[in-house]
Amino acid sequence: MNFTSKKLALLLVLLVAPFLVKGQTISSPDKNLSLKFELKNGVPSYELSYKGKPVIKPSKLGIEIKDAPSFMDGFTVKNTAQSTVDDSWNPIMGEERTIRNKYTELVVTLSQEKNNGRYINLKFRLFNDGLGFRYEFPKQKDLSYFIIKEEHTEFKLAGDHKIFWIPGDYDTNEYAYMTSKISEIPGLQKKATIEINAQQPIKNPSVQTPSMMKSADGLYINIHEAALINYPAMFLNVDTATMTFSSHLTPDAVGNKGYMQTEAQTPWRTIVVSDKATEILASKLILNLNEPTKYKDVSWIKPVKYIGVWWEYFVAGKSTWAYGTENNVKLSDDFSKLTPNGKHGATNERVMRYIDFAAANGFDGVLVEGWNVGWEDWIGNWKEEVFDFVTPYPDFDVVKLREYAKSKGVKIIMHHETSASVTNYERRLDRAFQYMKDNNYSSVKTGYVGTIIPRGEHHDGQSMVNHYIHVAERAADYQIMVNSHEAVRPTGLHRTFPNWFAQESARGTEFEAMGGLAPEHTTILPFTRLMGGPMDYTPGIFQTDLSYYKTGGNQRVNTTLAKQLAYYVTMYSPLQMAADLPENYERFPDAFQFIKDVALDWDHSYNLEAEPGDYITIARKAKGKNEWFVGGITDENSRTSSINFDYLPKGKKYIATIYADAKDANWNEKPQNYEIYNVVVTSKSKLKQYIAPGGGYAISIKEATDSELKGLKKL
Predict the structure, then answer these.
(1) Whose C-alpha in 34, 291, 362, 487 is 20 to 30 A from the C-alpha of 565?
(2) Which of 150, 510, 512, 627 is catalytic?
């Protein structure tokens, strides 16, 4: 470099430096999204736009610290750095065989000179489908330990958007969804906060994430978080005067939000944006913001299709988890001396029937709930020593059933309900997992029904967030897969801990037997709860009118039978249950065939049509096979689905078996009326398929010989 160019380079640095203080702008790789960072009077802020439309107006960033100067203001820009990344990775199980990770990154280092030059990093990653950003606290001389009083991240929205929401609550996410304008949230908060076991609603107007919105000018906006590790879950305070959301972290028993030791970071705050609802469903931003797994051996992590001793507990008292009639028991009691109630579900005879059914129909596992002692007084007493996870009831022979299942090529799925007594579970965890290993159980369903022990802690607090991860990591030591219920909502951690392969963490099928779910519910969940990860929704209920059991209950599952089939495609999970009683599947063997056939792991997914709260249609290609499956669902309104098959290989013909609502079907009248027909499809085929109110349809597409295609109508 000559003298003149050296001077020019220095001049550029001097010219750029003042602008670094005022702001930095980056664009997504496709240039549709633009992020602007600014420092105004020492306070950091950001704004986000999509195709020139404002998504997030200038919004402040900051962390309030207890008993120490906060990371709120007094900042100067110490450094900025930009970079781009474009790579790909392959999930162990997932909706796509390969996921592209392409983004533009901006890292801003902010220094507080008044606090001895203490500094933090703000890291922004702008993808084609949205933004992720987080606070990072490098290890430094004057920053080692600190307590978070509150995080003050703002999301100032550009309008009074339509929003699909559930109220903020530290202990449950099992609320029914509300649909309203943001401005209507305060007036609807009381109505939305229905009574649920173990709840702690936030007093001020607030919503949970993932929060799904649609603007008046057609933008779809989803706010959530990614990589929730060693930090409390985030809720969103709602300020309707300014249309601003602000972060609200879950407190612990003494009111603190988080305990940090540098080097540390917050979870990523995520904003997924598109003018197409289907692209919201296709987003892999949250997964991309999670770290790859460090597990060296993942060969034992596999999809699971299962049935179980479960739904019969919800069908108006058909069976019970408890063995005895007593309601005051201790783990030290001799449970063989209890008075049998005559309705215990987890008996040798019943479980063997389920094993036979699973083996005959190609299922991998049988979940058995109520197998272990302690269910007589497990709930509502805030009791610590509830279960020991290794002692079966007198009518459940672990060794006999282990060997019987093994002879049939089926595995029993363990159930660890903790009754929210986390202290008890953690003390017994290794012994419980060793017991599973000794008895050929390779997966476990954990549950956290009730108010947490240690007392004063919450399901979504930092301590419990760490507990769920601890369980997943310890389970991995024993090569055990985990399906957690009543846990904090997922944030993409199934990438980092792939044996934590499913969660409930929302209002699932069990609530169809406890007041019912609105027909629109499952057209909202993929845009909200499932943005963070797979859900154990437990679909497949064929007997939707529960008065059929003549036990006094008149509850109804608010779907058609065909819609239950569609869930196996629209509600992604590598863990899928055929949740109904075996005898109901035996009554409808032709419809049951779809559940037997449908894949659990995928090469590609195609989001064909969608509108949150109204309808969803998704097609998926089975991993490693020339088989495709399609699921389409609607809300309480009938509609005609219009889709094509251009994802099929060109020039080839396939048989499509279509499982559809009959013309007279309805979620509350004739829900079991369906039709099944075969047609020939190619990549040029188009389908217009009627969907009944509260209904759906499912399609399986497979290769076929010319003789099999002969005589079939071409679509």
Answers:
(1) 487
(2) 510
